[in-house]
Amino acid sequence: MLAKRISRIQPSATLAMTAKAAELRAEGKDVLNMSVGEPDFNTPSNIVDAAVQAMKNGHTRYTPGGGTKDLKLAIQKKLDRDNNLSYDLNQIIVSSGGKHSLYNACQALFEVDDEVIIFTPYWVSFPDFVSVTGAKPVFVQTDPDNQYQPIFDDLESKITNKTKGMIINSPSNPTGGVWSDEAIRRTIDIAKSHSLWVFSDECYEQLTYNRDFRSTFDLCKDYNRILTFQSCSKTYAMTGWRIGYTCGDSTVIQAMSKLQGQSTSCPNSIAQYAASEALTGDQSSVLEMKKAFHIRRDLIVNRLNDMDGVTCDTPGGAFYVFPNFKEIINRNVSGNKIKSALDLCMMLLDEKLVVSVSGESFGADDNIRFSYATSEEIINDAMDRLEALLSEI
Length: 393
Ligand SMILES: Cc1ncc(COP(=O)(O)O)c(C=O)c1O
Hints:
Elements: H1 4-7, H2 13-26, E1 32-33, H3 45-56, H4 69-83, E2 92-95, H5 98-109, E3 115-119, H6 125-132, E4 136-140, E5 142-143, E6 149-150, H7 152-158, E7 163-168, H8 181-193, E8 197-201, H9 216-219, E9 226-231, E10 244-247, H10 250-261, H11 269-280, H12 284-305, E11 320-321, H13 326-329, E12 332-333, E13 336-337, H14 341-352, E14 354-355, E15 357-358, E16 368-371, H15 376-392
Parallel strand pairs: 1-14, 3-4, 3-7, 7-8, 8-9
Antiparallel strand pairs: 2-10, 5-6, 9-10, 11-16, 12-13, 15-16
Helix pairs in contact: 3-11, 4-11, 5-6, 5-10, 12-15, 14-15
The structure holds pyridoxal-5'-phosphate.
């Protein structure tokens, strides 16, 4: 009955874990949720005020399909200020979140018989965005000891005459890995030699802890097939407002705009006014949130590395850690072998009420993703429970 494209996609594993946590909490259980992919901070008040003002000013109607001119000007200003990037207005489209931007761009560029390179471990949605177009996701290995940068031999060997694009995501969800400028340049050189479209998902661009972020297009300005994707969600604690944007080749942007006009009409008008304030108003809350995430990152990495059988490299960005449990996975628990990260993840949930996301969903069988977008108290409590579980294994 259903169209084939629906069977090509999977439900989001991260949203499924969040739903499971809510279910357990509703039963009155003391659940600690370490699976969330969003800041635990409220949207800063200047942004909320801008939304209220927008409603009072009557900005409650449809806007141009690709976003208001006001917001596109704010995006131009932000990209110049933070990323040393300059785009014309017809090279910018606003969508209902970064996820919507990426989905639309895949629809605009990929189709049956195309192949698209995705680096493993990957954000859960990338393969689905590609598969739903009929194109094939092709996975390239990365180096866990080196911020999950590409294994370049593997990358070269996976490119065929069908390869049309690649998706890069630094800082990364789920690993938190931040690629070096050199690794990005090398990746783009390879993309360029095969004329591939490069999607640079930069939704965690404001969350790098060891060095300043450099946008992919800023590093490789001579290659016009790079599309830059950013979002207000993580930077400004605006996940529910649904504002993301894409910048790059105007023909692709026009195609995305046409598709968007026939699907969602336009992004939410009020959220667009709020986003203009977010991007051009006071940026101090961004730094405050980043400072808190930095402290939490160091806390959770130290706690994990103190546990027997767990290894956790220090991720350079985002708000996730992706420890490896290889040593634990094959140990015996009351006669039952933990066969996978998923088994361990479910055991952590069932026995200790800690919600995490197993690495299988991201293409990494020995890892579990913990989000540290939560208080230090919850991080410590969750790590105590994990430690207790591991000591029982
Ligand atoms: C890597 C990555 N890209 C894009 C998104 C999309 O975020 P949003 O649609 O809220 O902008 C997310 C959200 O979790 C993400 O982790």
